C-alpha cells in the first residue's frame, strides 16, 4: 500500500470518527481530534492531486469543518460560508458526502432564514438517505427536518419527525444530549400549539438532561425557548428573566435580543427596548439575517411610536418578505397589528385591507395544518 493511500484511509477514518463525536455532541473530544485532522489536511493540500478520491476527502473535511462551526461558533458563519463547497460537488462525489453536502447546506440556509432553499436541500438529502444504513444518521436527519417544519409553522409534522428521531436516539447509549435536543424541539412546537403545560414539561426535561452532561451552551438554547414560552403568555417579567441570561452570555443571540426587547416594549420600558433593538439590528446586519432585520425594524417603529404611515411602510416590507418565505404566521401577526392601529384611527378602508391580509394568512396556515 502506498503512503498516499495509507494517509487517505487514516484521515478518512478520523473524519468518520470526528463526525460521530459531533453527532453525539461530544465536542471536547471532537475538538481534540480536529486538531490532529487539521495537521494532516494541510499536508494533503500541499500535494497536487486531482483524483476523485483526493477531492472527495477534501470536500468531506470542508463539510465537517462547517458542521463543527455550526456547533461551536455559529455566529462566525456568514452567508457566503458555504460557497467554497459549491464548486466541489459534482457527479463523481461519493453518495454519503453528497448527502452531507445537501443536509449541511440546508442547515446553512435555515440559519439565514432561507426556508425555501432549506426545504429544497433537505429534499435532496432525503433522496440520498435511502442509501445510508446507519439509523443514527436517519435520526439526525429527522431531527433537523423537524426543525425546518417548526420554522415554517408545520408543528404537527415537526412533532412527528422529532418523535421518530427521539425513538432512535433513546436506543443508543451516549446520545442523551440528542434526546434533550428532541425534547427542546417538542417543547417549542407545543408553545405554538398553545399547549403551554406540555411545552414547559418538555423544556424542563431537556434542561435536566443537559445539566447531567454539563452542556451549558445548549441549556441557553432551551432557556431562550422558556423565554419564548412565557413571552407567548404575556408573562413578560418571567420571560425577561430567562432571556436576559441568554443575551448576557451570548450578546449576539439576535432571537433572544428580539424577544427581550419586545417584552420590555410590552412593559412600556421603551428606553431598554430601544437599546436591545439597536443591538439586534447591528448583529443582524453583521451576520446577514434578513428575516430578523424586518422583525426588529417593525418593533423599532412600534417602540418609537412612529406615525401609522411609517409603521405601515415597515410592515409592508416585512410582509412581502414573509410571504416569499411562506412565513404566514408573521403575515397574520403584523397585518393584524396594522388593522388594529387603523381601527383606532377609524380608517375603515385600511382596516378592511389588512383584515383581508389576515384572512389570507389564516387560510394559508389552515391549509398546511399550522393554524395557531
From TrEMBL:
SUPFAM superfamilies: TPR-like (SSF48452). Residues 23-57 form a coiled coil. It holds the Pfam family RapH_N. Keywords: Coiled coil, Plasmid. InterPro entries: TPR-like_helical_dom_sf (IPR011990), TPR_rpt (IPR019734). The keyword Coiled coil applies. This is Response regulator aspartate phosphatase. It comes from Bacillus cereus (strain Q1).
Amino acid at each position: 500500500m502506498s503512503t498516499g493511500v495509507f494517509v487517505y484511509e487514516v484521515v478518512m477514518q478520523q473524519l468518520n470518527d470526528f463526525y460521530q463525536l459531533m453527532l453525539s455532541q461530544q465536542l471536547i473530544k471532537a475538538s481534540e481530534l480536529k486538531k490532529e485532522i487539521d495537521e494532516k489536511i494541510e499536508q494533503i493540500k500541499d500535494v497536487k492531486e486531482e483524483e476523485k478520491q483526493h477531492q472527495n476527502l477534501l470536500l468531506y473535511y470542508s463539510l465537517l469543518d462547517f458542521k463543527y462551526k455550526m456547533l461551536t461558533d455559529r455566529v462566525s458563519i456568514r452567508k457566503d460560508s458555504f460557497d467554497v463547497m459549491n464548486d466541489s460537488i459534482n457527479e463523481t462525489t461519493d453518495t454519503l458526502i453528497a448527502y452531507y453536502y445537501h443536509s449541511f447546506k440546508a442547515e446553512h440556509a435555515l440559519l439565514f432564514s432561507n426556508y425555501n432553499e432549506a426545504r429544497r436541500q433537505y429534499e435532496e438529502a432525503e433522496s440520498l438517505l435511502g442509501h445510508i444504513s446507519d439509523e443514527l444518521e436517519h435520526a439526525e436527519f429527522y431531527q433537523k427536518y423537524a426543525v425546518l417544519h417548526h420554522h415554517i409553522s408545520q408543528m404537527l409534522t415537526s412533532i412527528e419527525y422529532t418523535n421518530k428521531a427521539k425513538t432512535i436516539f433513546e436506543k443508543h447509549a451516549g446520545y442523551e444530549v440528542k434526546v434533550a435536543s428532541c425534547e427542546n424541539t417538542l417543547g417549542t412546537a407545543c408553545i405554538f400549539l398553545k399547549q403551554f403545560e406540555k411545552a414547559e414539561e418538555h423544556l424542563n426535561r431537556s434542561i435536566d438532561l443537559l445539566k447531567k452532561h454539563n452542556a451549558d451552551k445548549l441549556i441557553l438554547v432551551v432557556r431562550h425557548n422558556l423565554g419564548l414560552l412565557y413571552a407567548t403568555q404575556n408573562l413578560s417579567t418571567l420571560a425577561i428573566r430567562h432571556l436576559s441570561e441568554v443575551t448576557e452570555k451570548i450578546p449576539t443571540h439576535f432571537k433572544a435580543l428580539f424577544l427581550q426587547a419586545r417584552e420590555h416594549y410590552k412593559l412600556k420600558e421603551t428606553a431598554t427596548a430601544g437599546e436591545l433593538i439597536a443591538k439586534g439590528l447591528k448583529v443582524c446586519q453583521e451576520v446577514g439575517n434578513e428575516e430578523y432585520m424586518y422583525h426588529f425594524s417593525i418593533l423599532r417603529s412600534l417602540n418609537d411610536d412612529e406615525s401609522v404611515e411609517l409603521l405601515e411602510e415597515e410592515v409592508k416590507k416585512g410582509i412581502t418578505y414573509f410571504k416569499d418565505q411562506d412565513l404566514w404566521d408573521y403575515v397574520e401577526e403584523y397585518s393584524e397589528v396594522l388593522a388594529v392601529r387603523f381601527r383606532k384611527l377609524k380608517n375603515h378602508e385600511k382596516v378592511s385591507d389588512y383584515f383581508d391580509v389576515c384572512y389570507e394568512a389564516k387560510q394559508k396556515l389552515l391549509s398546511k395544518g399550522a393554524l395557531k
